[in-house]
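re: ur question from earlier - yeah i can do the single chain one, its not a big deal. heres the input i used so u can compare w yours
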Amino acid sequence: MDKKYYVYILLTVHDTLYCGYTDDVEKRFKAHIEGHGAKYTRAHKPVKILYSAEFSTKQDAMKEECRIKKLPREKKLELIAGNAV
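and the output i got, formated as tokens:
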């Protein structure tokens, strides 16, 4: 079985978006909620997963995470809504 990687976008309590990558979205979300995730999500608690996309390699997931992080909020929201950007 090949390992899969994911890019995800979370909505925080402060209505901000957080983007990351992982090999298990639900487990990573739980870690963020428990304060074991990124420094950003310790200060801005996540409330829900808005988006995730699957990749076959860690490198591809990391490239997409980097691309998404550079997008303005409006483009991230378009991506979440299902519109390719």
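The beta strands are 5-12, 17-22, 46-55. not sure if urs matches, ping me
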